[in-house]
Amino acid sequence: MAPRTPSTKGITTSPRRRLRGRLRFRSGLITNPSVAVPSFFTLMNLFCGFLAITQVHTGQFTYACYLIVLAGFFDLLDGMMARLTHGHSLFGVELDSLSDIVSFGVAPSYLVFALMFEDAGAFGLIVAALPAMCAAVRLARFNVNFDGEKKVDFEGLPAPAQAWFIVALVLNIEADAWLARAGVLDTATLTPVIIVLALLMVSTIRFDGVPRISVAYVRAHPVASSAYLAAVILFVFFRHAGLLVTLVVYVTIGLIRATARAMKLVFAGLPDENGVQDV
């Protein structure tokens, strides 16, 4: 008599196991060229993050900032290469998140610590560590919820956007920009900013994702495309200040949308003048 096969009735498959099943045919890791190409750019992202940490260690804060910005561009390129080569894989998702923790979590945290909190004691250590810890939580949550499809927006502030925000602040300080001379970019002001940025990463507020560069996207989203073009122009012509203004606007738009949604839900549940509650 053949051995009885254990029943699987009532057993549910975890989301990560379902994703692994869907992507198994494309999970050839480095042996698969379609996976190796985007993985190369992901490793360049990690390499830039490592170099940024070494530059912070030697006191070259400006170089460290530019390396974190460069890591962000490699982070964009690995996604583009994955789409072009059809190299999406579970391996790529995990490698990307591990690289992002270094480039957009540990590197900004070390940068903040060395620049502002080295002599601030335990409180400075905690504040400086927040970008790294919250980035790790955010990326772990992303990996668990990732279903193989790229979304048009993200839950929580993207780790690269948080890192670039910190970089923009540091660049304006290092360049002695008018913001720094006006006393806006001092430790007392930046401490709550860093805390808020870290908390936004682990929040449920939705922020826009980076658009795909295509004619179809421009036609479907002309306003968003114009906004991103304006951001590039600001960065090219105004550099540090332009990057900071762009990121302030980006975060502000996400917060305004979240507030509007919350207010809509609140007022939708209030009774009207006749005492009837909207549903």
Large-scale geometry: globular
Question: Measured on Cα atoms, how large is the radius of gyration?
Answer: 22 Å
The description of the largest β-sheet is: 2 strands, antiparallel
Reading side by side through the largest sheet, how are the strands ordered? 1-2
Instruction: Classify the helix fraction into a percent range.
Output: over 70%
What is the residue-averaged pLDDT?
A: 80
Uncertain runs: 6-11, 21-30
Per DSSP E runs of 2 or more residues, the count of β-strands stands at 2
Classify the secondary structure makeup into a structural class: mainly alpha
What's the total helix number?
Answer: 10
- What is the N-to-C succession of helices and strands? HHHHHEHHHEHH
Gist of the model:
The chain is an all-alpha fold and about 280 residues long. The chain is built from ten helices and two strands. The radius of gyration is 22 Å and the shape is globular.
Task: Give structural notes.
This protein is mostly helical. It contains ten helices and two strands. It has helices spanning 15-23, 33-57, 61-85, 90-117, 121-145, 159-174, 178-181, 187-201, 215-220, 222-268; strands spanning 153-155, 206-208. α3 (61-85) packs antiparallel against α6 and α6 (159-174) packs across α10. The radius of gyration is 22 Å and the shape is globular. The model is unreliable at 6-11 and 21-30 (pLDDT under 50).
